[in-house]
Amino acid sequence: MASLLPETDSEDELPNGWEQRLTFEDKVYYVNHQQKSTQWTHPLTGKRKRVAGELPFGWERQILEDRTVIYVDHTTKKTTYTDPRLAFAFEDKDVGTDMTQRFDASTTGDEVLHGRDLTGKVAIITGANSGIGLETAKCLASKGAHIIMACRHSDRANDAIDYIHESLPKAKLEALICDLESLESVQQFVDQFLSLQLPLHMLILNAGSMLSPHRLTIDGYETTFQVNHLSHFYLTKLLQQKLIDSRPARVVVLSSESHRFSTMSIETFSQEWVSPSTARNFVSMMAYNDSKLCNVLFSNELNRRLSSHGVVSNACHPGNMISTGISRNWWLMRTLFAVVRPFTKSLGQGCATPVFCATAHELDDIGGLYFNNCYQCLPSKTAQNSDLSASLWLLSEKMIENGIKQLKSQ
User: Fold this and answer.
1) Is residue 288 annotated as a catalytic residue, yes or no?
2) Alphabetically, which GO biological process terms does the record hold (predicted)?
3) Of these residues, 81, 288, 370, 375, which one is catalytic?
């Protein structure tokens, strides 16, 4: 079973006369009272340590008039001189991507957020009214985050809010309409969000469509491609400045291991490939695979363009055949999902990797990666092609421009 907390050196007792303390920059240092000296490294292991950036949920740091620092647990009504985060100090490594695996396939989103306080953080989650999106919203809201639920149907969004409020009556939740089959709806959603004058710390691109028959959206593009990639691309572009102004900020793009089965390449890439205008050469499963490859390519290119501005992006795979609404378009797939349900991840486990990518401290300032089971893994070779990711970005911009022109001409 996965550990619920970062790896620590708690089993390595300090020698007699030693004490560990924290700087206000959250770095651990060690005091040798016998020699009246301090050092950054653990006297036994030689490791440098740090702690998570915020106190556990319910804790507050207070500085008294005599400059004494105390820590108050408002849940238990207890006060201590010891920073509670010291119990969970973890190694401070120079190489950010050399991370220890703390979680696995059995981990839930609640376990990822154990001890975290997200008060003051704002997250937009697309497709938040059901499935993994709903579970992600509930998980983040339980730790104090303000959730903007970007949903296609207002009644379903309101039902989702009522569902979360049943167990979290004080959760900060708002629903705004965002139909990913319409670029105009995406624009209207962004206008409404910006009018709220909120920051944006997490943009979680969760909504998706699978196995849809060939159909063009109102903008003239194939539905699977527009819902899974193009409208999310447009949404992110419209929110780009807000993300930068709110930095540090993160974008999480939900992809799938099925991206590995895409046959798209830099040689075959074209608008007709990703968004076929007719059903003649259209295969719904291949369209889904291609769109999931686009998710990884987009995340990588987005990170390349925005990471220097304090915004990082990572793609992730939530799990295989989790019981969500994504299989709604074909009765056979709905049946298959029902059959395998006892052997797949729960929704709580399915949201763990997106939640990890959105909040984990070890990913501070780290992006352009792909995650499965809360751990970095390499995506397909095609997904790592920087020329293809740049080509997709340019084509997406062109398609959005043409789609908006078509809308204005109507």
Assistant:
1) yes
2) apoptotic process; Wnt signaling pathway
3) 288
